[in-house]
Design brief:
heterodimer; A: globular; B: 148 residues; alpha+beta; Thiol Ester Dehydrase, Chain A; 6-stranded antiparallel sheet; 2 helices; globular; HotDog_dom_sf (chain B); FabA_FabZ (chain B)
């Protein structure tokens, strides 16, 4: 899976979870899009299940926008040696 | 089956008390992963006369409460899930399906599987079975607020 595919998949997961299709890459999930901590744990659970990764709570502060979330997921997947991950 | 935790032990673990206890015993536990609890439904419970007067159906909302209490027990009995002893548990999101009605005489087997825990939130999937048939399932998200 290349970066573009990963970004597209992540956009779908976020849009489905927060029930907002129209968001920009740099909008803040909490202050701009009204995402609450309950949605965040749901997003994290879906990402962990889809990509078989473990997202520790300490990563949350660097997942406040879509761009940041993509970078974090990519970083975790790369550190796991699963650059082409996903199923 | 001999319970892993008895009713009296469950009462000590849960923050709720009668008439809002919806777990009888804990049957099995894999700490940090899953728990199986049991509750017997009888015709003389407090909610039965009103739900409904002419046809008894155990309320679905109380099946959700059984699932939520199973999640609390899973959290409290799992050393890897760090739960503050003073925490209050607030159910904040539920996606549920009720498949079959529950009636007096049924024995609920409530299986709760851990999905994700943070310091102040948790997410679990739970399934309730009666005689090996699924009667309800749900995904629960809850927050844990420290009492100060």
């Amino acid at each position: 899976m290349n970066q573009e595919q990963l970004i597209n998949e992540l956009r779908v997961i976020i849009a489905e979870t927060i029930e907002i299709d129209d968001f920009t890459d740099d909008e803040n999930f909490i202050s701009d899009l009204g995402v609450d901590s309950m949605m965040i744990i749901e997003i994290v659970a879906r990402l962990e299940k889809k990509y078989r990764i473990d997202i520790e709570e300490s990563y949350l502060h660097q997942m406040t926008t879509f761009n940041q979330l993509v970078a974090t997921v990519k970083e975790i997947m790369e550190s796991n040696g699963q650059v082409g991950g996903g199923r | 089956m001999k319970p892993l935790y008895t009713y009296d032990e469950v009462r000590q673990l849960l923050p709720q008390s009668y008439p809002f206890l919806f777990i009888d015993v804990v049957e099995a536990l894999v700490p940090g992963e899953r728990i199986i609890c049991r509750k017997n439904i009888t015709g003389n419970e407090w909610m039965i006369p009103g739900h409904f007067p002419d046809k008894t159906i155990y309320p679905g909302v109380l099946l959700i409460e059984s699932m939520a209490q199973s999640a609390i027990l899973l959290g409290k009995l799992s050393p890897s899930i760090h739960i503050d002893d003073t925490a209050s548990f607030l159910l904040t999101a539920v996606k549920s399906r009720f498949v079959n009605p529950v009636v007096p005489g049924d024995q609920l087997r409530i299986e709760c599987v851990s999905i994700k825990w943070f310091s102040a939130q948790g997410m679990v999937e739970a399934t309730i079975r009666v005689r090996d048939e699924t009667v309800a399932k749900a995904e629960l998200i809850f927050s844990m607020a420290r009492n100060t």
